[in-house]
Amino acid sequence: MGEWPRPWRYIFHADMDAFFASVAQRDTPALRGKPIVVGGPPESRGVVSAASYEARAFGARSGMAMATALRLSPDIIRVGHRPGGYGNISRQVMTILRRVTPLVQQLSVDEAYMDVTDVVAPDKLEDLGREIRRRVRRTTGLAVTIGGGVTKTVAKVASQVGKPDGLLLVPPAEEDEFLAPLDVSLISGVGPATLTALHQRGIRTMGQLAAADDAWLEQEFGRRGAWLKERALGGGSSELEPRDERVPKSISSETTMATDTGDGEVLLALLREQAADVIPQMRGSGLRARTVRLKLRLSDFTTFTRQQSLSGATDDEAVILRVASELLGRELGRGREFRLLGLGVASLEPAFAEPPAPDAGSGDPAPGAQLSLLGSGA
Questions:
Q1: What per-residue confidence (pLDDT) applies to 109?
Q2: How many other CB atoms are found less than 10 A from the CB of residue 190?
Q3: CA dist 191 to 106, 268, 374, Å?
Q4: Buried/exposed code over 133-150 (b: 16+ C-beta within 10 A; e: otherwise)
Q5: Which residue out of 3, 43, 54, 111 is catalytically annotated?
Q6: Which residue, among 128, 24, 132, has the nearest Cα to 79 in the 3D structure?
Q7: Which residues contact 132 (CB under 8 A, 6 or more apart)?
Q8: Which residues, other chains included, contact 78 with Cβ-Cβ below 8 Å and sequence gap of 6+?
Q9: Are 91 and 287 within 8 A, CB to CB?
Q10: For the chain, give me the number of helices (H) and strands (E)?
């Protein structure tokens, strides 16, 4: 990759490959090379949090009902979430990234942006990417894919295309050529409803989206139409928000369900899966929360949030799940069915105490500690 004018920034997007599933395969050698899915048991309406690449070959994917995933093939193996969670591994990875540059924006427990503009010369960016991947592999035993581009949009798409265990850097001024043939679903933030509307218009690639009529985009998506076209062209910000400079306001995980449901046990199982995503992100960022928040969307698309403040900041998964289940329980019944459920933590602050030792504690509530949907009548 040659020189380019200094107005350009260059961004890496580092994304751990099938993180939860890869950790399970690393920790249990017998699972290596096997199709595995991580999540709760089917009898409790569990949901897939992560699928190994071997399981994805059968059609398994995150967000799928565990019972559905296990019916895809008798060879698929379900494993529960890692005792002790994933925070310690996440901290190891983020430490490696921050030793390369302080300009790191952590997005979740397993991915982050890095501004590497001033770290090495442009012709050394591939060497830097290979070195980061080597350090992560040596330290954690896990693979990380790195995508690169002059915006966060291009870098994130590149990492998705480069998976698994890859390095894909898009040179400046070559974004259009790279993005044009790719599926519009690779744009972060394009969900099922947007995808359906685009497909109905015959728009399946980013090149087609980039060439779409502006008036139609505005009519169909409002102001978001211009945003979609900008992303299809590789536009967007290259500015990062490092953790040391800005504590995030909230961390959340949400799921749009394939079928609307008012079943409290299904929704509670989904909350558990979301907590297994949110809590490690919070711990991995060295934070605790003072507020638990639910986002809910009804079958008629009415969307609202419910939240509750805690007596003190915490990263205790059992406490957060108990409060979330109480909030959920108050909204069940009344003939309601839900199409989206989200769990979030807010009012975040640094956790000044020492982090727990690796593998200490449990990612699940203590044995015998049952969650209940208080006030739900379920």
A1: 81
A2: 17
A3: 22, 23, 32
A4: bebbeeebebbbbbbbbb
A5: 111
A6: 24
A7: 12, 14, 96, 97, 100, 144, 146
A8: 36, 37, 38, 39, 41, 42, 46, 66, 69, 70
A9: no
A10: 13, 12
The DSSP call for residue 74 is T
Q: Residue 271 is encoded by which pair of tokens?
A: 């909350």
- Residue 2: pLDDT over 60: no
Token duo for residue 170: 């898009």
How does pLDDT run across 14-70, given as a tens digit for each residue?
999 999 999 999 999 999 999 999 988 887 667 788 899 999 999 998 878 889 999
Confidence (pTM): 0.68
Question: What's the confidence (pLDDT) of residue 4?
Answer: 54
Cis peptide bond prior to 164, omega within 30° of 0: yes
- pLDDT value, residue 327: 94
Highest mean pLDDT among 7-11, 196-200, 362-366: 196-200
Q: Can you tell me the mean pLDDT for 95-119?
A: 91
Residue 111 annotated in active site: yes
Q: Which two tokens stand for residue 125?
A: 């960016």
